[in-house]
Design brief:
- The protein has a five-stranded mixed beta sheet.
- With 454 residues, it is of the alpha+beta class.
């Protein structure tokens, strides 16, 4: 075979393998394949492979223990670099967290590399010897690569249709779960290398193929089960929080109803006095009475009614319930809370409702923690515009926050053990490219703004 043919086969197999890796990884995170990210990953991976091969080319000395060690080290380094490169490309081009993309790449590598190796091993063992090596090369190299690409297409299609990416994100909801899924995925990348190390003379047969393809199926089912189980746990927690928020909403309505009954009784007594003043022709007294009555109404019911009107402008019921709960908490802590919703807030937003709830809850909780113990003030503004939802949480503070240190994980002005919410808040925003967050101080108030596309 000529050198040109050999290089063509190597390049073709490498591109097919890279496309399979990229296609399946992007499918796991729920995105569509794009040409530019694929070419970027292919270029980075190609350079890494070339440097790795060039570095170890002269170290092999036949089938010796040293050669096996070199092969294992090569696999460890190059597979890790490929997974990290694909994770970085997905992070850069699709705005998916790096660990999500890298884990998807490691799982894809396990599926595709195992498929390719099983088919290639069987083809090398059972294909007849041909006089023309071109046919033999096609059977043992090109067909296994194409078969791996087909498996990647099929797996990505099934995962997209099932909405697996929604559950996949749940696997990274805590540090322990993140460490587990990343560690398992990392080890799966080296299953084939380990099996080749311990069973170097294993002959490919039907049982051999069934074992490895069953292993792929079991891993996929395990990952999906863990993801769905974790997502189910989170959904139960969200439902419990929603029920608690709805109960707080009902309590607010009952409290408002009691206030109205008390006000009705007080107004009846006040109007009895007004009737006497009218009979006596005391116009000045009547004017004073009307001013006091208006002030009394605002003090008793005005703020509650305005808040109820604002809450009714929010068509996202879980957000309405969240705000009701937080406003009730502010009243318990004797914090002056004000809600302004200038226009109807549409039910459909680009940010998923659970993420919107978590983000808004973090901003309000930060404000509640930061206000002074006495005379605390918090103002919450929601403004629905044509192409975005504007949210602002404004509060006074006991200690002026350091804006330069806010980006540091765990920063807080309220002592140790707090301040972790901001890192979760930034993680939520990273999932939505159009979201813009801004934080600044103005006239003695701490302002947290969020602009989310609709």
């Amino acid at each position: 075979m000529g050198l040109l043919f050999r290089l063509s086969v190597v390049v073709f197999v490498y591109l097919v393998f890279g496309l399979a890796m990229f296609w399946l990884s992007v499918g796991i995170v729920g995105k569509k394949v794009k040409a530019v990210p694929f070419l970027l990953y292919t270029a980075c991976s190609g350079v890494a492979n070339f440097l790795a091969v060039y570095s170890v080319a002269g170290l092999y000395t036949g089938e010796t223990l040293w050669s096996y060690i070199i092969d294992l080290a090569y696999s460890l380094v190059i597979y890790s670099i490929e997974a990290a490169a694909l994770g970085l490309v997905i992070r850069k081009c699709y705005k998916i967290p790096f660990l999500h993309g890298m884990t998807a790449a490691m799982l894809s590598h396990f599926i595709i590399y195992t498929t390719n190796s099983v088919v290639a091993g069987a083809a090398s063992t059972y294909s007849p010897l041909f006089d023309r090596m071109y046919i033999y090369t096609f059977i043992t190299l090109v067909i296994p690569a194409l078969w791996a690409l087909f498996v990647a297409f099929l797996a990505a299609y099934v995962l997209r249709r099932s909405g697996f990416y929604r559950y996949f994100e749940a696997l990274f909801s805590s540090r322990a779960k993140t460490a587990l899924i990343v560690g398992v995925s990392f080890m799966l990348m080296f299953v084939w290398t380990a099996m080749s190390w311990f069973f170097p003379n294993e002959e490919p047969n039907a049982l051999y193929a069934v074992f490895y393809f069953s292993l792929i199926a079991v891993v996929l089912l395990w990952v999906q089960f863990m993801a769905m189980y974790t997502a189910g746990e989170e959904k139960i927690l969200v439902q419990q929080e929603t029920i608690a928020q709805q109960q707080a909403h009902m309590e607010l309505l009952e409290e408002l109803q009691q206030e109205i009954r008390a006000f009705r009784h007080d107004v009846s007594n006040l109007f009895c006095g007004l009737a006497l003043q009218a009979q006596e022709g005391d116009l000045e007294g009547i004017q004073q009475f009307m001013k006091k009555t208006s002030s009394y109404f605002d003090e008793k019911l005005g703020n509650e009614i305005r808040q109820m009107d604002c809450l009714n402008n929010i068509k996202i019921y879980p957000v309405r319930s969240l705000l009701t709960t937080k406003l009730a908490l502010m009243r318990q802590k004797h914090i002056q809370g004000t809600l302004e919703v200038l226009h109807l807030v549409a039910e459909k937003q680009a940010v998923d409702t659970p993420d919107l709830l978590r983000g808004l809850g973090i901003l309000i909780d930060n404000a509640i923690e930061a206000v002074p113990e006495k005379e605390g003030q918090i103002r919450i503004v929601l403004l629905q515009e044509e192409k975005e939802l504007y949210i602002a949480v404004v509060n006074n503070y006991a200690a002026e926050p350091n804006l330069n240190a806010l980006s540091a994980k765990g920063y807080t002005t309220k002592g140790t053990g707090r301040g972790t919410g901001l890192s979760s808040y930034r993680k939520i925003l990273s999932r939505y490219p159009g979201c813009i967050a801004r934080t600044y101080l103005k006239d003695g108030f701490f302002v947290q703004e969020l602009r989310a596309p609709t």
